[in-house]
Design goal:
Order of helices and strands: HHEHEHEHHEEEEHEHHEHEHEEHHHEHH
Protein name: Extracellular solute-binding protein
Helix content: 25-40%
Number of strands: 13
Oligomer: single chain
Radius of gyration: 24 Å
Number of helices: 16
């Protein structure tokens, strides 16, 4: 009798544990949704099934692009009747601010995240799986291929891609006569160019402390050949070492997100032969004294932003509907013109107004590595400090080599 009672009690406890345990969908949704959510469609008509509760959104944007987001948010509030409070944080302070907000239990409902942070936040239980979002958010198959590893971890999506900002190179063709105005194609040609420019005090520039820009510059020097050896990396780092005192490092304004003296202006005025920076700061127009090209390998380190919902938010429905609106086709169509960042929707690039941007798209085979993605944010912080020491002259190239290993 006692044994029977024990079995009954065990069964009751097991059922209770099953009901209380959180669970995720068995498979992540990667294909397009069959039908948009009814509420998402209703919002476009100014109606909603239920009144939408107030939500708070943390963003990390420059001043001008945040103003554009505020205008979009105002339109959304008028259509939906919702209240959405936007709180903008300087991009360089966002990661620390977000972690502090979680530590004090004051996290917002929605966060704008760098793609390099998603795995960190997801693995710590800070984000809601995107498969549980409501409101017809963009499906994974409708986004550009570089977004997958940036919003996925452990087999699930944890955010919705918003935009990306690849690195490009600007140069003055008059300073590349040996290659008929074009850029050198391999490390040997870069060495020859360096020798020809030996009388020039400053020869190359990129934003100070921007480790992704430095990685893009190294990728540029390694060349565009099909096979790039470990030796080409060593030679590119050695070139960076030789040009250490001839490199112009410019800082980015925290308030505007722009460079005080843009590299574009310096190259056009022949004050600097070559510079590497993000597309949003370089622009897309070429002139007789300035040429511009994407750095193909830099798509692996392109600055990608996405929107995620905090795991503890009790307003996932309201948050999902807002994200669906901001990342939808209607708003993404004008995203580049207004922010300088490229939209993530594939369909946008087939539109006549966006055809000129197609050269900035990565090949389908180009992706972002998901290896050790949980450590990416901390790793970049460490690399940034090492990069600063390198250009201060207190660290050799050996201290940087490790950060280029997989």
């Amino acid at each position: 009798m006692k044994r029977k009672n024990h079995l009954v009690l065990f069964g009751v406890l097991l059922l209770a544990l099953i009901n209380l345990s959180p669970s995720l969908p068995e498979t992540a949704q990667t294909g397009p949704r069959k039908e948009p959510d009814e509420e998402a469609a209703a919002l476009r008509g100014g109606e909603s099934r239920q009144p939408l509760r107030e939500i708070e959104v943390y963003t990390m944007m420059g001043t001008s692009e945040f103003e554009f987001l505020q205008a979009l948010n105002e339109e959304y509030q008028q259509r939906s009747g919702a209240v959405v409070n936007l709180v903008n944080i300087a991009p360089e302070q966002a990661y620390k601010t977000y972690r502090e907000a979680y530590a004090t239990g004051r996290e917002p409902d929605v966060l704008m995240l760098d793609g390099a942070w998603v795995a960190d936040f997801a693995s710590s239980g800070r984000l809601l799986p995107a498969d549980l979002y409501e409101g017809g958010v963009v499906a994974a198959s409708d986004s550009l291929p570089i977004s997958a590893a940036s919003v996925e971890w452990n087999g699930y999506r944890w955010g919705v891609p918003l935009d990306f900002d690849p690195y490009g190179v600007v140069w003055n063709p008059k300073r590349f006569t040996a290659t008929s105005g074009e850029l050198p194609r391999n490390i040997e040609e870069w060495k020859t160019w360096e020798e020809n420019e030996s009388a020039v005090k400053t020869i190359v520039g990129f934003p100070g402390g921007d480790v992704r820009a430095f990685a893009a510059l190294i990728a540029l020097w390694k060349g565009t050949e099909e096979e790039q050896s470990e030796q080409s990396l060593e030679e590119a780092l050695a070139l960076a070492d030789r040009l250490r005192d001839r490199t112009y490092l410019n800082g980015v304004s925290a308030q505007s997100g722009q460079l005080p003296s843009g590299f574009r202006t310096l190259v056009e005025s022949d004050e600097l032969p070559l510079a590497v920076d993000r597309l949003s700061r370089l622009g897309s127009e070429e002139t007789s004294t300035l040429r511009l090209a994407p750095i193909a390998s830099s798509f692996k380190t392109a600055a990608l932003r996405c929107l995620g919902i905090a795991a503890n938010s009790d307003r996932s429905r309201e948050s999902s509907l807002w994200i669906a609106y901001i990342t939808g086709h209607e708003t993404q169509s004008s995203w580049y013109q207004s922010t300088g960042h490229l939209p993530m929707l594939r369909a946008i690039y087939d539109e006549p107004a966006s055809l000129s941007l197609q050269r900035w798209l990565p090949d389908a085979q180009v992706g972002r590595s998901s290896a050790d993605s949980k450590k990416t944010a901390a790793r970049e912080g460490s690399w940034s400090r090492s990069l600063e020491r390198f250009y201060e002259g207190t660290l050799g190239i050996e201290g940087l080599s490790a950060f280029f290993q997989p």
